Amino acid sequence: DALDPHVFVIFGATGDLAKRKLFPGLYRLSRSGILPGEFRIIGSGRHSPGTDEEFRDRLAESVRKFVDDFDDESWERFAARISFRTSSKDDGTELAEAVRAAQKELGDRTKKLLYLSVPPSTMEPMVGMLGETGLAENARLILEKPFGSDLSTSRSLNAALHEVFGEEQLFRIDHFLGKESVQNILALRFANGLFEPVWNRHHIAYVQIDVPEEIGIEGRAAFMESTGTFRDMISTHLFQLLGFLALEPPVRLSAESLRTEKRKLFQAVRPLDPSRVVFGQYSGYRQETDVADDSEVETFVALEVWVDNWRWKGVPFLLRTGKSMGQSRRTITLGFSEPPLRMFDHAEHFDGAPNELVFELTEDPKLTIDLRAKRPGPALELDHAQLELRFSEAFADAEPLEAYERLLLDVLRDDRTLFTSAEEVERLWELCDPVLREPPRAQPYARGSWGPEDAAGLPGPRGWRVPES
Ligand code: BG6
Q1: Which atom of ligand 1 is least distant from the CA of 211?
Q2: Ligand 1: distance of its center to the CA of 17 in Å?
Q3: Which of 149, 173, 213, 323 is the pocket-test mutation for ligand 1 (most atoms within 8 Å of CB)?
Q4: Ligand 1 pocket, residue 213 CB under 6 Å
Q5: Are residues 46 and 87 in contact, defined by beta-carbon separation less than 8 angstroms?
Q6: Any idea which positions bind NADP(+) (predicted)?
Q7: Which residues contact 2 (CB under 8 A, 6 or more apart)?
Q8: pLDDT tens digits along 171-228
Q9: Residue 165 to residues 28, 43, 86, 142, 371, Cα–Cα distance (Å)
Q10: What is the pTM of this model?
């Protein structure tokens, strides 16, 4: 029961994710009364940030920055339950003691929820520590991606996890799946009779999943240097988006059915072809603090994916993402086939562009359908016109949850519909394997641009579809 008292343990509590998302998310959930009435949060990491008081003060500063309607009173109530204990892969005694003490204080029904937000290389030994100290017992564990760094490390991580935890205790998080607008892909496809009949190779000519980001590495040099954009974004977030777009209709909206369909889908995805992958690195990256002078790490990736099944055979899926690019967007574009007959070719305003269905997965999500319509006037001239659905307007009184809030809530409810399985993660690494073995050289691109030139040609003559924002 979600209302049972909880002890939350956040590993990586002084890290970037904890500061930007986890503590702000927990604070907002507690303020809206969604967290259990009784809880303790124990932050953990290798180095102590000082006294508990100092840790809370530091957190207050960042939560204030990332939560618009921060207020001191509710923060004080929330923060009173936060403390910090050091732990490392070699030693978790002090932390385990603190967790036991908190459990005792909150009573027999108290549950444990552990959040592992640590670099991929420390994840496996940390799991060992959780087993040795007993912290793993009856606990749920949330893991932050990337899950390993290739097929063999992810297998070994999964094996290590399964020595200590049952799969039913594990929640592998991909926060893109917590975004309201991503869940809307499922709603649009399976709650409407309008789209699914045309959702296939007979009607869709191309799909683009485009996630350019304006931000650079923002103090995350160590992470970027060891992970790179391919592992950070493609093998995780962008493939998960592809999964939701391309899977077959699940028999019901349950974790099990979705997993079954995602598994089938990723089985049908062709392992990536390195010659259809472009890596880029923004100019000035090597001069960033803590980046190697000769770093070859990619900060940009564009690639082509093929899904070899009856629904999608022959439809190119183009994926692109990068740091320090011209705009921050999360756009999914589905381009439809041309009508069989061109009756209106003579029209002046008409450039022959096909219909497109566009999801904008931003903070202000919208769905647009680009149509051809007759331009009012004496001639039968065609022009583009748009049907637009802005979710913030259509559902003005709704209160959207931020992705991490949503997913934390799902863990509390034991609902794993939006989480990924061990098998799925391994399959994704298998698909990525050819690129990891033979990574293309990262080509330079200017900050604020759309990436290296070679990436521009990848989608063919129509190029990357970047709708006006
Ligand atoms: C994270 C990546 O998982 O997602 C970051 O590690 C990336 O590199 C971020 O910037 C993007 O998430 P969002 O929710 O801001 O689009």
Answers
A1: 16
A2: 10
A3: 213
A4: yes
A5: yes
A6: 12-19, 46, 145
A7: 36, 412, 413
A8: 999 999 999 889 999 999 999 999 999 999 999 999 999 999 999 998 899 999 999 9
A9: 29, 21, 22, 11, 51
A10: 0.94
Residues 451 and 302: beta-carbon distance below 8 Å = yes
Query: Of the candidates 34, 30, 56, which has an alpha carbon nearest to the alpha carbon of residue 43?
Result: 56
Q: How far apart are alpha carbons 244 and 184 in whole angstroms?
A: 10
Amino acid at 394: A
Enumerate residues 6+ apart whose C-beta is below 8 A from 298: 228, 229, 230, 279, 280, 281, 439, 442
pLDDT at position 287: 96
Phi, psi of 231 (to 5 degrees): -75, -35
Q: 356: burial class by Cβ within 10 Å (0-12, 13-18, 19+)?
A: buried
Please check the confidence at residue 117 and state whether its pLDDT lies above 80: yes
Amino acid at 48: S
Token readout for 449 is 């641009």
Prediction ipTM score? 0.99
* pLDDT recorded at residue 247: 98
- Give the neighbor-by-neighbor strand order of the sheet with 331-336: 382-390, 366-374, 356-360, 331-336, 204-212, 317-322, 300-305, 277-282, 442-445
Report d(CA 82, CA 77) in Å as an integer.
Answer: 10
Chain-centroid distance, C-alpha 139: 24
- Nearest CA-CA partner of 303 in 327, 280, 329: 280
- Residue 17 labeled ligand binder: yes
Rounded Cα distance, 149 and 147, in Å: 7
DSSP 399-459: -PPPHHHHHHHHHHTT--TTSB-HHHHHHHHHHHHHHHHSPPPEEEE-TTBSS-HHHHHTT
